[in-house]
Amino acid sequence: MPNPALVVEVVSPGEPGSENYDRDYVEKPKEYAARGIPEFWQIDPDRAVVTVLTLKEGSYRSTEFRGSDLLTSPTFPSLQLTAEQILTAGR
User: Fold this and answer.
1) Do residues 53 and 43 touch, judged by C-beta distance below 8 A?
2) Domains (ranges, CATH) in the chain?
3) Which pTM value belongs to this model?
């Protein structure tokens, strides 16, 4: 089965050094990079940030988006969403 073009995850609450934080911010990006997933979004409601990670030469480069910042997605370049729209969806 081919890799997905994009993975989007809502991160679990937790501070740096906690099990949740390490899993979401350290382990998962390493795992997804090793699998060759080209784009990975981390949605963090507690920190009010959407991070878009783009795979370049085997590791992710990250860009953070907050508030009215318009997300940029290499996989979906015509996407027109702000960080705020994503962070408040379903509320």
Assistant:
1) no
2) 6-88 (3.90.1570.10)
3) 0.91
